[in-house]
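User: I'm new to structure prediction. If I give you an amino acid sequence, what do you actually give back? Let's try with this one:
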Amino acid sequence: MDGVAKRQAVAAAFVLLWAVKLHHLWSLGAVAVRSDSLDSDLQAASESAFLVWLLLDSVFIAAVKLARVPRLNFSWLAVALVWCVFTALNMLVAFSVTKANSNSSHIQGSHIVKIVPPTLARLNPNNTKFCLAPTAAHGGFAPWPRDSDDQTLTAVQIPLQIKGTPPYFVDIETIDLAGRVHRRANVSIGVAVHNNSRGIGVYPIEAKTPGVWRVTAVRDAAGMDARILGLHSAATTAAATPDASSSQKERPVVVGTEVGVCPDARWVFNSERASNVGQGEEQFVRSLDNCVEDSIPFGVEILAAATAGVEVFYSRRIGNQEIILRLDFHEHATNTDPASSKIWTGDSRVDEETRKIIMKLIPRRRLLQSSFSADTPGAYFFKLLSVQDGRNNTVVFSTGHQLPQSPAANTVRIVEKKPELFVVDSHPRPVARFANSDTAKIRSISTDAKTPNELSVAYLPVIFENGGTGPYKFTVSYRGEPLSPLTDQSDENDGNREIQSLTEEWTFDSTTNTASVPAKMPGIYILTSVKDAYCQGSIQVPSETLVQQTYPPTISIMAESIEQSCVGTVGALVNVSLTGDAPFWIDYDEIFRGVRTRRSVIVDKLRETLRFRPALAGRYVYEFQAVSVGDATYTEGIPIQNTSITQIIHPQSEARFAPNTPQRLTKCIGDTVSLPVSLHGSGPWVLSYEIAFENRKERFSVSVGAGDGGDPEELTDGEGEAAVEIVTPVFDAPGVYVVDLIEITDSNGCSWLLETQDVSIEVLAQRPSVGFTRKSVLMLDGDSAALGLALAGRQPFNIQYINKAYPEHIFDLRGMSEKDMIHVHAPGSYEIVGMSDSVCAGTAKQTICEVKIIPRPTIAISTKEYESEKVGSDGFFERREVCQDGPDSFEVIATGKAPFAFKYTVDRVSTDANGKHGEKKRLAAKNEVAAGNVNKVLLSTSDPGIYYYSFNEIVDDNYKKPPARTSGSAPFLTGLKQTVLGRPNAHFMDARERVFQCLGDDEEESGSLDSADANESSHKNGSMGASGASISIQLAGTPPFDLTLELKHENHPAETIHVRNISTKVHRFRPPTLSATGRYSIRLLGVTDATGCARVFEQQQQQQQDSSAATSATQSVVEVSVAVSDVARIASMNAAGGVCVGDVLTYTLQGTPPFTIAYEFERSGGKGTDGDVERDVVKGRVTVVDPLLTLYAAEAGIARITRVCNSVGCCTRPVPAGGRMETVVHELPSAIVDGGNDFVEDIREGDETVIGIDFLGEPPFSFTYARRDLKDGSADDNSKGRGRTGKAEESFTITGVESHHVNDEDGFVTEDEEYADEEEVEGDDGDDGDFNDDDDDILNETVLERLAALVDIVPATTRQRIASTVSSAVSTTKAAGLVVGKGLWVIATAALLVAVPVALEIERESFAIGQENQQRVQASQASQLQSEVATGNQ
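Assistant: Good question. You get back a string of structure tokens that encode the predicted 3D arrangement of the chain. For your 1434 residues, that looks like this:
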């Protein structure tokens, strides 16, 4: 948008703004000329218009500034100036509209006569049927009380529609469900909840009792009965009479509003299957257990008045899925109420129709039945949502659900009732089966007399699946044959023996998911049924298990020898043949050298060969007598016949390394290895072995016998065994050495090559070593130090070390790794005395390590911070004294490793003005952090006293925590104390404002006031008078004092004044002579006392004191103001004849403001007992700043100015008595209607009433009364506003009233009475004897009088109407002219303020454009002239 468009938009907005203002002005004019409006209405309308205009102007001016409109983009100062001008214009115009007739406020009382139309009332106009819901403390299923009203129900509001004049009083009749009739009379119904434009109000009638409610009478404020609509209805009833037994008659039936009991519902189910599962808010939750696919019956018991159309909505939720279901009365309904009689037992005065309604309203119980079957296991939640009875009353129990809409007459939401819930816990059906289908086996009956006749037991495992709930009950059936003792299997009659089968059944319990069934008889075991804690289950395969009977095992034994050349018998082969159930085990005894050894062998098949080949030579006996054989069924074994095998064994000689000899060894260079070897056979022996290294082998032989290997154990056959150790030579080279046994030769000359596992020896090139990694280590006090080790070798290592201070104590560490260190807890010199690794012993290199303690940090105060000769007995160093608020600090020196953190406390002993010390109090406990060894500590000097700084803790980077305290109090490390001297202070003791003298007057003139007034003025204002009294200054500190002050006039430079050697604490300061009028300020600059401490009063401090002086009564005053005033004079601007009550008295003032004017007012009074006029004089004072004094004349009397002077002093000239300084205030006429009370009187058409009026003022009086239409106003509004509402149809004016009291007998009559009086006068003219004298008066009338008498042709009422219309038109025209004139003036001035700057800007821009065009033309002409000259030269 370009600049022109923006300016056009601004102009359009400006025009629209002033159009709105003109509309508001027109509204203000209408309020001003309306006769029934008050001054307060006009004032409120003016204030509202001014605020709206101010807001619109602010938005308009800000928008123009922010839009940056070309030629209208002024500075913010100019914008603020324009805004102030607009605000002043708005205030001037908005509050300049005045009332055309302002005498209405002097009318006291009112008498309103209303002709009220008939009042109409109707209860429950929409014929709504209501219901009462039980409160949270009462359920709805208790039997309905017919004899008492002890059940608490919520209340409902029945609408009562009334058209008339409030307030209203009603008579209410209630017939409860017990048939009792309750009546209440003159019940106030309160405030209407709704009023429409036709004057119809709706009032609530609170109903707390169910039954039939009726409003039998309604009375308005005047006590007049209203017409009740809908109270009766025509109904045809049969009345039995003696003349006609079945005749039909129509008679009115009294009807009312039905208020019933809201329907209620609750769950009903089998209590044996239910249990309570909730706490708190959910304590009404019931839980029912059910099985999948089983049907569970449940019901909803309802309590409702009409059950024909009952509907119940409930929700069913499983998991996150929820559905809404419905039950209605037509499905399954059972009457659960006890038998009740339909005989009426209530009040006999109740009519038959009402009795029927009451019987229908009595709530009855019904049961709605249903069922539920769960398809899947889980928890199903059932929740009641709502219930609706046959009267369409709906009760909602739970919110948050979208229920089907129904035309309900009344909907009640019960939010306080606990939820009606029940949960169906659907359980899965259990499934049972055998763990496997393998055949189980049991033993047969034994025929041995030594063994009892009992069966073995086979346990059949059973598994329960499908998520059942324990404990489980299951049934197992059995089919099989009876058992009998074993008989000969070759019995010929077995084939013809008849077999008899058996069938039995058992029941078992199990609390886990598995069970075992003991099977004692052979046959088929079948799972027939299963049941858990809740449901009957099913059986799955394998559901059958076969149990077979097994027989004891048997054995047959055959043996043969094992022969070998050069030796003979070396062992035996035993062949065994078995019968039974593999695997088998066989026990036998081996007897060698008289020692019996029990041995056992396992055989996995029915035929096996056992190989007995002992290692030692000798005689062996193997006995199978009194030994058992067993299989998988007969685990304890069966005895067999005695069988023994005897053999003499000559085994071949054998040599092998000892059993505990490792196959791989590791040694260090320079070591040897001793390997133990065991030999068996016929000794002595010669053993050959080899040692292989790299590609070389070396063979060695060793003889083992009686002289070499020791005496071998002698056997009966010359056989034996021996042991020898093979010692290797010293290993001189690293590598792998292998020792292998090659050959053995026994005493018989037989040689055998040995097949034994060789031994491998790894020889390391270096031995292990150990040493400390550091020669010295530092440790914290009370902590431990870790000594690093340099280890070489194969872990784990074993190290021995000592503390040289205690060499007898050797520390032995075993199983250490390369990363382990030695941890010590005490300082000293530690030395390693030995070490070894997993292979061999080692050596130590750096064997000594010194462990030292790191000292703890310390803190001390630098010696330059205190006086060395002043050290107290308490350990505190004393620092030099300092003045209050003087910055000071001291240095502390810390030792240790930075950074440091130290704690100290600050205590102070207070000192009063007399030098007495108070108690020692803790001010603060501080924590400081220092980056270096030297740190500054700030000292507190805010208050005087003795300060103690105690340091009790320090930590550094090494010691993160201070040492543990041995006692409860903190340790004292060091401390400093310092005395802080209080700074001197000074303040003025007098008031801030002072008046010294009246400029230009001598002492006698300045003291023109009487002594009492002068003293009072001096006391209140701090006046010093013309004599130049002093100003008191309060000093605090140690005298003598030096004081510095500043004296400054408001228009002259400041002057500094020094006052020295002040020995007292209260100083009387006398300023120099003040020669100019105006205001002087005397300000304290500074003060110093004998201690050398000083206080400087800054200007900023003075400003803070000035801003907070009003909030503190004890605020120190450091600056006083001295005013030198001129003589005050006053002149009156009031009219000589006086003013009326309500007018303003105006006076002009001369001199130096502010002014204090003393006046007195003499009220108008009556005569006393002696006949003199009583004088009631009231004196007063007023202070003004402006040179114009205005006083409001509130009552009649004489206002007199007695004195005028300045506010802080009295510089004045004597006021002359009488003259223009006295003004008479006349009383305004007032009218008191009916004693000043507000009467509202209702009369019917054609009735009369008397209105009395008392006048106050000077007769003759004239007054106007009006007749209004009160159809749009209420009686309360009319009484409060004296007829403010309503439209004035006609008004009447009565003039020339000489009496102070007027009523209808004195000529104040209505329109009809005036017509009657005129007729009566016309009728009396013919009989009056003075008729000729009147004719003489008519003959003496002038032409003008005769023309004026022509007005009597028009009736008085018509004249009054015409005069009222003309007066209203004139008043409206004047107000409109005034509004239009002011509006035009505002528009003209605003346009001038806006248009003149715009015109100047346009003119300036036009001038600039003209200059640019002229310059452009001149430049064009110059260029053309140059071209022409150039052309001429060519």
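You can read the tokens as a compact description of the fold. Here is one thing that stands out. The chain has a mean pLDDT of 75.
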